[in-house]
Amino acid sequence: MLLKVSPKSTADEEFSSHDLERQIVDYTDSSTRFYEAPRDFSKQYAHIYSARLCTFRNILTPLIKNKWSNKYKILKLCDLRESGTSCVIIGTLFKLQELKPSILKELSDQLEIIPQPTRTHFVHDSDSLVLEDELQRIKLVSDVIDIHQVVTGVVCAILGSEDEDGIFTVKDVCWPGCSIQKPLPVRNEDRYIVLMSGLNMASKSADQILSLHLFLEWMSGLAGTSYYQEEVSKIVRVIIAGGVFANHSDESVLNESDVISSAELVDSLAAAISGVAPLDIMPGCKDPNDVMLPQKPFHYCLFPKATEYKSFRRVSNPYECEIGGLLCLGTSGEPVKDIMRYSNLDNSQEVLKKTLEWRHLAPTCPDTVPCTPSVDTDPFIIYNCPAIYFSGNADEFGTTLYEGEEGQRIRIVSIPDFCNTKSIAIINLANLECYSMSFS
Amino acid sequence: MSNKMDRNKTKGPPPKRFKSGDDDDENDTPFSFEEQLACMDTGDIDSQEIFEGEGPENQSSNMKWSRPPPPILTPNRETLIFQQLDIDHYYGSPMNGMPGSQLAPVPIMRMYGITSEGNSVCCHVHGFTPYFYVTVPVNFTESSCNEMKTNLNKAILEDLRGNKDNIKECVLEVRLVQAKSIMYYKGDSNITFARVSVALPKLIAAAKRLIERQPLSFGLMDPQFYETNIDFDIRFMVDTSIVGCSWIELPVGKWFLRTIDSKVKPESRCQIEVDVAWNAFIFHPPEGEWSKVAPFRILSFDIECAGRKGIFPEAKHDPVIQIASMVIRQGETEPYLRNVFTLNTCAPIVGSQVLSFQSESEMLSKWSDFFRKLDPDIITGYNISNFDWPYLINRAKHLNVQKFDFLGRIKNVRSVIKDTVLQSKQMGRRENKTINFEGRVPFDLLLVLVRDYKLRSYTLNAVSYHFLQEQKEDVHHSIITDLQNESEQTRRRLAMYCLKDAYLPLKLLNKLMCIINHMEMARVTGVPLLCLLTRGQQIKVVSQLLRKAKEAGYLMPVYHSQGSDDQYEGATVIEPKRGYYADPISTLDFASLYPSIMMAHNLCYTTLVPPNAQNQFNVADNDVTITPSKNMFVKNHIRKGLLPEILESLLAARKKAKADLKDEKDPFKRSVLDGRQLALKISANSVYGFTGAQVGKLPCLEISGSVTAYGRTMIEFTKSEVEKKYTKANGYKEDAVVIYGDTDSVMVKFGVKTLEESMELGKEAAEFVTAKFVKPIKLEFEKVYYPYLLINKKRYAGLYFTRPDKYDKMDCKGIETVRRDNCPLVSNVMSTCLQKLLIDRDPDGAINYAKQIIADLLCNRIDISQLVITKELTKNDYAAKQAHVELAKKMKKRDEGTAPKLGDRVPYVLCCATKNTPAYMKAEDPIYVLENSVPIDFNYYLENQLSKPLLRIFEPILGEKAESLLLKGEHTRTKAMVTSKVGALAAFTKKKEKCLGCKTVMPSETKKALCDHCMKKEGQLYITEVFKLRQLQQNFSRLWTECQRCQGSLHEEVLCTNRDCTIFYMRKKMGMELDTQENTILRFGQPIW
After folding, report:
1. What is the pTM of this model?
2. What's the complex ipTM?
């Protein structure tokens, strides 16, 4: 056990140095769909919604049959001619939110004198919900959907009927749910992966550098007893989930010159980690990279030193890979934060759980999270059920084991912001146990 | 008060909510129009009984459309009370038992109105006879009257060619009356007039003409005519004391109901049709209980036409494909009836009725059935008078749709289109089409807005953004035909636009309270509602003057406009001491200056002593006032003037309305009262204008000249009094200086540093000076400007304080913030500069900001939408060449389909061209400019648009050096060079990549981003470029998602081409710049290994 080293052994053992080999497990990068997202800016966002709806229509149709047997017709809104008859509609949810920031309003405000209050949370009692299919939208009323627990962009099937006023009363709802999981491999020996995020290297005020040094020493096996060092050698991979240059805290404004001056430090750090373990580095929404999801990997020119290491990999955000037969999927945290901004969900594990049930990594993308106008597919749909599902730059460490209806076991991890918490997350691939470790 | 009101008015309906909350907080979400439609209340018309259609055309096909069924009425036992909305007259046969001539034809008045239950009423008023007055010689006797009657009758009958109306007796009566002329004070003795009553109103003009030609044959000498030029409807209203939109009561037993069984059959489409004698009904002045408003039905509609590519729709060729209608009851906030008539099928729209038709003729015919069934009282829409109505009527005529044009309330009268020209001082010359809808009031919102508001643009988009902060999705007319031809879904989309276009005018009417304000104006001035829109200011004053004159026994002479060039001196101003004042400036205003001068000095037609006639009428010197313009008026103890009386009652009424407003809690009643006090204020001010209007009904330059002369002297007097009293010598802190004075206000610098002190002194000075004036002239302290920027005469800006703790607003006069021929950049820069100067009190900041904008402009960092100038293409050949006309021609050559057509607004920017190219050749389509990166002529914008207004506001601060500082400084040195993709040279130039670090030209074969020298800074330069990319991406994403939300659909592409929208060009530009930046970043190499 990496953390629970029995205290009695420490006293006896020598603090001598051993040569230990870093353990290796199989690794495949499965993020192709994120790397290859089309980037044609003459396109609009309608296509990504259409692609999303189309995919989910195929996913939902069998589920609807399961849930409500063949009792109700699946209709499109345009076929909804008689009110009162119960039917099923598949569509994208859209939340009307008064407080949602609008660039139009901001532009008109430039000419006004009264400044608008800046908000970070956009939920209001008056928020209302509509469902939209390929052609039309309809207003929903429901006791079964709590409007403050859903967000724009989620696709679902609703059961209910339209009333005289053209409002649809929802009696039941069918979420896409978590997809079927590939059987998890059986592993007897402990193998660990380290998840961290929010290094915030461009910040001048932060005090994370010392902790990072401690982390580096620990990674390199320069700490603890030889038994402990052996445990450390079982760390097979480090994933940094964004926030490398700047973290996600709302008040941090990214300053170009600070980023430039920290570039060398980031490179050295990446090189140092890569020197001792395979490293995957994901960009975050405030890092010097695009803002649109999926974010491309960091450019190699930012890492002249680290690029020399074969173990150094710049990866996309979101990122999907298979480590030792376990599928890992996650983002640097922006989709989760955005969902929290537009709903009353305030716990990031809770949000992650919801997104699993919605089978979608980032439903509010493109509405409130910038996104490339992708054409034929929606890359953010969770096509394969992961074993490890993470999100970076959380306020604090948090983890739960999600157990699906069909026996899926998914380790949900909110990776803490390193700069603020000085901690990282560690997952044991053998049993999906997860801990945090602090370096303060 | 208005705050709460506005909230209620602009609000959407309370939406159904999840997690049923019981909070009262209503919803303000700007929801998509579709949801708004969906959750509107579906109406609550009692559908117990079907209204029996009378005429063959009144189809009772839809119960929801018709009015509530009328009660069963018994004239012998009940009164009938209704609010009249329109009054007209027609020629008909006299009715038994009614006063007036018993020989057909006689003029019969018709009043149309609504009962408080919402039933429509048509009331025929019998027995009112047209008449006029003419002066008679001294020896003219009763018998001369008979003689005159016979002769005139004979003369007119001979004169009537054909006599279509079969008039048997033209002159009904000639009798002598004693009265005074309204013109001049000529002592108290009456003179004798002959009052000539004729059979029909149109005979008045004929009679006048014939008498003028041969006065002697009628026993007259040098006849002067009085009141021959009064509209018959106004004459009727004056004589019966009715004012516009007032309540009428028909007393028990005095009225007769028309039914299918009665002797006289109904002629109208109204539910209740009655007859009454002109002197047998009761008029309720609009006060107290009778200031209420009946539940009028207001219909707003919009049509869509499928035009051909490149041609503005013509009724002869292009079909009407959709008609959307929305109906609201006055006083409610949401329409209770929404429907759309479509040609070909259309998918259902939640919350609205869709009626689809396979043939256009059927659709038009069914719509006119709907219109008649609905029986609207007020018809509104956007530009319906000049587009929608003429198009519908002409189209129906072209398709030979039977009975489409029976749109008024009288069964057998067709609605026809007439061209009218309205010439008014207020609006200039306007050509309009008018259409008669007997009994209904066409209330085109566009006309109302053009009349009452000064805006940059009057498109529905611009107007709704301005007043409602709502952008409207706009579909280019070239796409409409495609949408129509595709499927029922695309037609549904079209129907959504159409419904929205019908809904917005209602929303605006509600927000701006147009109907209420106009109704109050009609009540105050006594003219029908329709007159307010179709006529100028004069008729309102005439109506009031006639009412007063009648009461006091005066007659109004006919004035023959001589088009004289007599100019009286206008209001002058105290020469401004220009500058930027950082100390508080107190402003003293004369309350209702011109009206109070007229009241104070008893200035009126009736009090004006004719030149050199003082002795003739025995007026003592101390009984007259000699005005500063050397005119003489008798004082009010000799004779009280009519105009002062009118003004007194107007101002007293205003005072009362304002007092009532304070106490009233009900928001709707408050809006009525507020509308009234505003109407009263405007009316009071227009009285002065009436006396000065030289092509008016009764101009009197002696009055208007005296008024302005008094105004001038009073301003001067105030200045000298204030400067005399508030001096150091008299124990005040500083010597007061009047820095500027305009028509009715004086700006005083007391030299004190705090708002409290300046307000205190302001109040004191106002009282001090007021005491020296004749009542009711009153100098009021109203506001302090702090700071104050005085640019020139009528051009100033300041922060407006009425209480010391917080400013009320920023007040700008005559500064380029709304001018329509400027690009938006100018007004935006001006308002920001003024904000910085006045609110932030940061002159340096303002200068730096202006410099920054100039630098941004020269470096191409200004968004193109800020530079777009828009002009309407009204005709193709102007005498002088104009930029937008030339551009339209150019665009037509490029693509006939999307080129602007006659009536379209042409947006353009000015582009670089070779030296000496005239400006009109430099205009270019903004989209073309974006797509081809055509260089914009920034110098033009700097020199012709920005420089003058900027210098104007900065000169008072910077003085002489303003120009050199602002326009010639360091910040103007760097200029962006844009290489055009089109143009003469573009074909020969070859673009070579430059190093992103040092801008050296790269060898042509390499694709690298940097030269070898800059390679070592690669990471740093990359980050810089990435930062630009991030900003662009952020904007791109926000702009396009905003458009999706605005159009109310996620799955459909945004088609909107609303060029008035702030983000239209930005959206386009962002996509292009993002592509370019993405490629620039790619020169660093693909990030994937």
Report:
1. 0.75
2. 0.91
